[in-house]
Design brief:
The structure holds three protein chains of three kinds. Chain A is mainly alpha-helical. Chain A has 15 helices and two strands. Chain A has one domain. In chain B, helix 9 packs antiparallel against helix 11. Chain B is globular, with a radius of gyration of 22 Å. The longest helix of chain C has 25 residues. The radius of gyration of chain C is 21 Å and the shape is globular. The chains are: A mainly alpha, B mainly alpha, C mainly alpha. Chains in contact: A-C, B-C. Chains A and C meet through helix 4, helix 5 and helix 6 of A and helix 2 and helix 3 of C.
């Protein structure tokens, strides 16, 4: 299905306004959700450990993120004397940016119709969508590596080195695992991936191996337990952000949770049908008009939140891997499986095609 | 599969054999581990791959030039160079099996590297497409860098790998840059189109256009000059040749150089001679090449005189031989206008010289390895008296050195004769004189080896004799014998060789 | 708009290149290399080569340079500083080379000015590139050769880099 895409030539002002609105709205939704997921993390962990968790600020503790943010703002911003200033200051920004850029290509819902114009619910519907996602999210490692190096201190350094090795390794599995999906959709465009799932089965079911590998790699790429070796508290104090304080520390924090959201969104788009609701087809969504858009939008965010919950759930359930185990798992187990999956998909597709 | 595809694949059969051998050796190594069985199996498979490739090559009919996959030109010229490269690789594989310097743990992985380099060389000489040229070049170079450092525990080997890699990367970069300029000029990756664009720029582009032509040509020639170790780009060669494991040195000196020359000739022919190019431009390019040839051979020979390590001596002499090979290229470029006959004289001379150089160098390295294998001899001093200990190898060594020098009853004389004749016929008399002087210098240092082998030293050898009694050393010695026989035979009956070379001209 | 994008990305690449060449710390230089590669990827995008640009970032920025940075970071801090003074002697040679190069570029510009250029509407390239990779008369052979190249070089690199376990005899 090709979306009727509004271009600059059609109506420049409307185009600019629509795109600006999309950028502002989506970025804010995601950032607020990231902030809330910090709270969710604490709540869920409390719940799993039979505690109450934060419950003082606002009803049920809902304003806790705002309080945290205020605290970060008013803390003294310490730049240790032994750091490499330029890179030290640059690092948190670099850590946050890729996650925000990737938000541009994620389809949040079916196209919306405003004033007779069809607006796709994605900021930039790139033809090479998934490649762009991987390309940009691979930049995230620079923030960590540079933070580790610029801090000029041994624990951050170790964290940075670990992070670069880990993220480069798992990027490979991330990319390989989804090859099968694009073989069956014959497009790298994320909206095409979703529409093919809306009318067909979710890739979670037709590509189960890819799904499992992708999820594991997503945990490693976001440095979450069980793969949080770059910031393993028991070994490295706090890893790469040991020397950071105040808002700079907060930026690493936001970056991490935004990256979590991005990967949740990717899992939703690639494997859980994106905005799809079981038993609805593309025609149904179109028939419902803007209500269909709203439904799809909600469905998408429910999936994202569910996966975010899964992130937290795993964190408080599974212990940390050792570094050699992490590397062995990646290169000796996941990569061969991912390659076999590609071949298998090819065979099945060829068999179905003939 | 369409019949067209089938003919394309047919043309690629030798390369397919090589790649199949790569895959099978890797798999065998994976399954069988590093034991004796694995070593036997991988060695046999690698040799079988080479033999298969040669047989497939033998079946090819190149009387009608064919194109394969749109990027390969499978003609007699490609056939000639592929035959040289693949057969040289086969011998090097044999040498590699008996060479003691390779650790047994990594011996199995050595074959895929060699076969990969051979594969790259074959592609390099059969393509007239810039993209494939680059790929073939990398396919040939990258495994070579790795092989140069194969003796990890040897400092010299590591140094060789590093030097080769750094200079090689620089040369590749320069060549790629030149290619990008050529592509920008012509908008095509195909050499004849590029030749057209070069003519156009030289004739109509004004001063800037000429600048562009000169710039891109210099860059491309720098890259190729590195590969064949010609004068200003030779400085990697001695250290790399000396430090690399001896089989690798043989590979670099023969297969790699042949591929470089093959590329150079095809490039010169396709990009500069295919069209009616301004004579002025070609004359300049030709005289520069002639000067480079003269300097290269003089430099190589004069520095070779001082050497005491035999491998290093052969390395410098190999630089000198690059100079002789370039003489033919200079002749090609000085040929005026559309005088195709003169161009072919130059080409013929280069191919003849290369063929004779092939036998001489491979044989000399074989003898060097055989002596190193039995006696651990590396320096000229070590060689003292070895001729009496191992008369067969000693005599064969002398034959090969005589051929490399260019003494009459051997193939080397024929090669030198053709090169001299070509130079004189195209008015490059001075170059012929320089070359003759160089041959005299070469005689002086080459003969230091036979003198050591037979005339120096007492009855007691300076180094212990550890006769290799396995089957492989015998096969290797036998192959050296065949090379020696061929060297002598070609020196006397060279009609077949001439006919073959004439059938292989571009 | 296109002009603005071009200038923007070209400026990033150039600035990165200058920092890379002249900064005393290797880590900073390596990081400036990221800017160069990113700027070049941006130029690809400006020219409508979306797949190429994304691949450039994915492989060179996200992969190769990280490894480079990795290697630089693991070497000691002192080695991370270059003495520029030593390279001053090379300046005349490099300057000469640079001047020659500038002339060559002048030639390039002169040629392209003579050409009729039609600005095409940028359109997705991934499909066309994919087709070329499986077209027997397109890039099928180069593509396959590349896979052999990577296989051989990978095996070779691992073999050379693999640590020899001390004490284990060569079986």
């Amino acid at each position: 299905m090709s979306l009727a895409v509004l271009t600059f030539a059609d109506d420049p002002i409307f185009y600019l306004a629509a795109n600006l609105a999309k950028i502002v709205v989506f970025t804010h939704i995601v950032l607020i959700l990231s902030a809330l997921s910090v709270l969710a993390e604490r709540k869920v962990s409390a719940w799993m450990q039979d505690r109450l968790g934060p419950n003082r600020v606002g009803p049920g503790g809902i304003l806790q993120p705002a309080a945290d943010a205020l605290k970060f703002f008013f803390k003294e911003d310490i730049v240790p004397g032994h750091v490499d200033k330029v890179l030290y200051i640059l690092a948190p920004a670099i850590a946050l940016m890729p996650a925000l850029i990737v938000l541009a290509v994620i389809p949040y819902g079916p196209p919306l119709t405003v004033l007779g114009e069809t607006i796709p619910m994605v900021i930039a519907d790139l033809d090479i969508g998934i490649l762009f996602v991987f390309a940009i999210s691979s930049l995230g490692v620079y923030g960590i590596v540079l933070a580790g190096w610029a801090s000029n201190s041994k624990y951050p350094m170790l964290g940075g080195v670990r992070a670069s090795a880990q993220m480069i390794s798992y990027e490979v599995m991330l990319g390989l695992s989804v090859v099968g999906i694009f073989m069956s959709t014959e497009s790298l465009r994320l909206t095409d991936v979703i529409t093919s799932q809306v009318d067909g089965t979710w890739f979670m079911f037709s590509q189960p191996i890819a799904f499992i590998i992708f999820v594991i790699a997503a945990f490693a790429e976001t440095n979450r337990l069980p793969f949080d070796l770059p910031e393993a508290e028991t070994e490295l104090v706090a890893g790469y952000h040991t020397e950071y304080s105040s808002m700079k520390f907060a930026m690493f924090f936001i970056g991490e949770y935004t990256a979590m959201f991005v990967f949740s969104a990717l899992v939703a788009v690639l494997f859980l049908g994106g905005w799809d609701i079981p038993f609805m087809s593309n025609a149904d969504f179109e028939a419902l008009g803007n209500w269909g858009t709203l439904l799809g939008f909600l469905s998408f965010f429910v999936k994202c939140l569910a996966f975010l919950f899964f992130y937290i759930w795993v964190r408080w359930t599974i212990p940390r891997f050792r570094f050699d185990q992490l590397m062995n798992l990646g290169w000796k187990v996941l990569m061969p499986i991912a390659l076999v999956n590609v071949v298998l998909t090819g065979v099945v597709l060829g068999w179905l095609g003939s | 599969m369409s019949p067209e595809m089938l003919t394309d694949l047919q043309a690629l059969m030798p390369e397919i054999w090589l790649v199949a051998a790569i895959v099978v050796t890797l798999t065998a190594d994976l399954i069988l581990g590093h034991g004796r069985t694995a070593r036997t199996v991988t060695g046999v498979v690698a040799l079988a791959g080479v033999v298969g490739a040669l047989l497939a090559l033998g079946e090819q009919d190149t009387s009608v030039p064919a194109r394969a996959f749109g990027v390969l030109s499978v003609d007699g010229y490609a056939w000639f160079f592929r035959a040289l490269i693949i057969s040289a690789t086969g011998l090097v594989i044999l040498y590699g099996i008996i060479f003691r310097g390779l650790e047994d743990r990594t011996r199995n992985e050595f074959h895929p590297m060699l076969l990969g380099a051979a594969f790259g060389g074959c592609l390099l000489v059969s393509t007239d497409n810039l993209l494939m040229l680059v790929l073939g070049m990398e396919m040939l170079s990258l495994p070579s860098y790795i092989m140069a450092g194969w003796q990890k525990r040897e400092r010299r080997s590591a140094e060789a790998a590093l030097k080769y890699l750094v200079y090689g990367a620089l040369a590749s970069g320069l060549m790629l840059f030149g290619f990008s300029l050529l592509y920008g000029m012509s908008g095509s990756l195909w050499l004849p189109d590029i030749g057209l664009a070069i003519t156009e720029q030289w004739e109509l582009g004004g001063e800037l256009g000429r600048m562009l032509v000169v710039g891109s040509t210099v860059l491309v020639f720098a890259g190729i000059g590195f590969k064949v170790a010609a004068f200003p780009f030779h400085f990697w060669a001695p250290d790399v040749y000396e430090g690399s494991p001896a089989p690798v040195t043989a590979m670099l000196a023969v297969a790699s150089k042949a591929a470089g020359i093959g590329l150079l000739l095809r490039f010169v022919d396709g990009a500069f001679l295919g069209m009616v190019v301004s004579e002025d431009w070609l004359a300049r390019l030709g005289s520069v090449t002639a000067v480079i040839a003269a300097v290269t051979m003089t430099y190589g020979n004069i520095t070779a005189v001082k050497q005491t390590n035999v491998k290093r001596l052969l390395a410098y002499s190999s630089i000198a031989h690059a100079g002789f090979l370039l003489m033919g290229v200079a002749v090609m470029l000085t040929a005026t206008g559309d005088d195709r006959a003169a161009v072919e004289t130059g080409q013929q001379a280069t191919l003849m010289y290369l063929a004779t150089y092939y036998f001489g160098t491979l044989g000399a390295f074989g003898c060097l390895m055989a002596l190193a294998d039995r006696f651990g001899a590396e320096d000229l001093d070590d060689y003292e008296g070895l001729g009496r200990q191992a008369p067969w190898i000693g005599v064969m060594f002398v034959v090969f050195l005589a051929s490399l020098t260019g003494l009459p009853p051997t193939a080397g004389f024929v090669g030198k004769w053709f090169v001299f004749r070509a130079a004189i016929s195209s008015g490059l008399d001075w170059l012929a004189v320089v070359a003759a002087l160089n041959a005299a210098v070469a005689l002086f240092y080459y003969m230091k080896i036979p003198v050591s082998l037979f005339l120096r030293g007492g009855d007691q050898p300076r180094v212990a004799d550890v006769p290799g009694l396995g089957l492989v050393p015998r096969v290797a010695n036998l192959s050296i014998l065949v090379l020696a026989a061929a060297t002598v035979w070609l020196g006397l009956m060279f009609d077949d060789l001439i006919a073959w070379v004439n059938a292989s001209l571009l | 708009m296109l002009d603005f994008m071009f200038v923007f990305f070209a400026a990033i690449a150039l600035a990165g290149g200058l920092v890379m060449a002249f900064h005393q710390s290797i880590v900073h230089s390596a990081f400036a290399l990221v800017a160069v590669l990113f700027g070049v990827a941006g130029l690809y995008w400006t020219l409508g080569a979306d797949l190429l640009g994304a691949t450039q970032i994915l492989l060179y920025v996200g992969g190769v340079t990280i490894l480079l940075l990795f290697a630089v970071m693991l070497s000691t801090r002192d080695a991370g500083r270059l003495a520029i003074g030593r390279y001053i002697l090379m300046a005349p040679v490099l300057g000469l080379l640079g001047a020659g190069l500038l002339r060559v570029y002048q030639g390039v510009i002169a040629i392209s000015e003579g050409r009729e250029l039609t600005l095409l509407e940028p359109e997705p390239t991934s499909d066309a590139i994919g087709q070329l990779f499986v077209d027997p008369h397109g890039f099928l052979l180069p593509f396959e050769v590349l896979s052999v190249l990577l296989l051989v070089v990978l095996v070779g690199a691992v073999t050379v880099a693999r640590q020899q376990q001390e004490g284990t005899p060569d079986a």
